[in-house]
Design brief:
Oligomer: single chain
Structural class: mainly alpha
Helix content: 55-70%
Number of strands: 2
Shape: globular
Largest sheet: 2 strands, antiparallel
Length: 349
């Protein structure tokens, strides 16, 4: 990166954060204005950093590129599941492993170049997550996730985890959960809302109207991702069923759902776990454990195959992050909680 570009980025961040700090310090500023300013500042910062990442040559496109290319194919009247994958029009190592609902969710941005879509998507995820968690106060323990290994990987690869977690806490945005129904289901189990259920049902219905047989195409692509399994199947994973003992709690249902739904157990998918800590000590402890899991996976390599790499990382994450979260949950009373991560949440549907 050139010196001029670096200066420009620093200038942008200063212009964003100085007014934000000034606004937060003012006694006559409402919480709502502070909350919006903080979320916009986080979103802008994440978007700028994502722009910086994709300004440099990268060995691979972002994970979002698959969905972006599929959305463009869909808007041109083509079958997304036939246009993306090895040897196809959009040649990638993997076929489209996302459901049609994800394609519809990204369709409004599909007309833009991927160079712009990545930063915009990342900014939306960071901003929505921040806005959702600051409803009652500006600083709350789960915000530690924003500076975690998980968030860094989310930014670098344009992942959905921050966006989905924020959407689960904001019923108006909850329909996004159907874009990634596995993690979405775990989040919905923790924070069920009638509005979210209706929104997801509408998006699902629209996807069927758009491509009636997309579920068949989607299921056929899942064979290409054998590493997408439930954490409960990993070493030590069955212990996570103990979270059911605290089933009345949102954090227990979240942990149980995350343990049971198939997904790639990698750092960026651990973002929802940061809703479980209720104190700053627990939150920073989970942050440190995330770093430990990342280092542990690196230290126990190299791996004989890509599948072995995924398996090794998942074992570290289950042992070092999921099981400590289980201990946090088991220490709490099995009562209908009105808070997760220190913020009050209505739990009934």
């Amino acid at each position: 990166m050139s010196a001029l570009a670096t200066v420009a980025i620093v200038a942008i961040l200063i212009l964003v954060w100085v007014p934000t700090f000034a606004l937060v310090k003012r006694d006559d500023t409402s919480h709502g204005r502070r909350r919006c300013a903080f979320a916009l500042s986080v979103a802008t910062t994440a978007g700028v950093l994502s722009w910086v990442v994709w300004s440099q040559p990268q060995p691979e496109m972002s994970d979002l590129a698959l969905v972006w290319a599929s959305a463009r194919a869909f808007l041109h009247g083509d079958n997304p599941y036939q246009m993306v994958g090895p040897g196809r029009a959009f040649d990638r190592p993997y076929p489209l492993v996302y459901p049609m609902t994800a394609v519809l969710a990204l369709a409004p941005l599909a007309w833009l170049p991927l160079r712009w879509v990545d930063p915009l998507f990342v900014a939306c995820g960071f901003g929505l997550f921040t806005y959702a968690l600051t409803r009652q106060r500006l600083l709350t323990p789960p915000l530690v996730a924003l500076v975690s290994i998980a968030a860094l990987m989310t930014l670098q690869t344009s992942q959905w985890s921050l966006l989905l977690t924020g959407a689960a806490l904001l019923p108006a945005c909850g329909l996004i959960l159907i874009a990634k129904p596995t993690i979405g289901l775990a989040l919905f189990a923790a924070f069920p809302r009638r509005r979210i259920a209706i929104g997801c049902a509408v998006v699902l219905a629209l996807s069927v109207l758009a491509r009636p047989l997309w579920i068949i195409d989607w299921r056929a692509t899942l064979a290409s991702v054998p590493h997408v399994v439930a954490p409960i199947t990993r070493l030590g994973g069955p212990l996570l069923l103990l979270a059911a003992l605290k089933w009345k709690r949102a954090d227990a249902r979240l942990l149980l759902g995350m343990a049971c739904v198939p997904h790639t157990t990698v750092p960026y998918e651990t973002i929802p776990l940061f809703l479980i800590p209720q104190t700053w000590t627990e939150a920073w402890g989970l942050w440190a454990l995330g770093v430990l899991a990342y280092i542990g996976q690196w230290a126990t390599g190299p791996y004989a195959s890509q599948e072995a790499y995924w398996t090794g990382g998942a074992r570290w994450i289950v042992a070092v992050m999921y099981l400590p979260c289980l201990l946090m949950v088991l220490r709490r009373p099995n009562e209908w909680s009105t808070s997760t991560g220190g913020d009050d949440r209505l739990e009934s549907i």
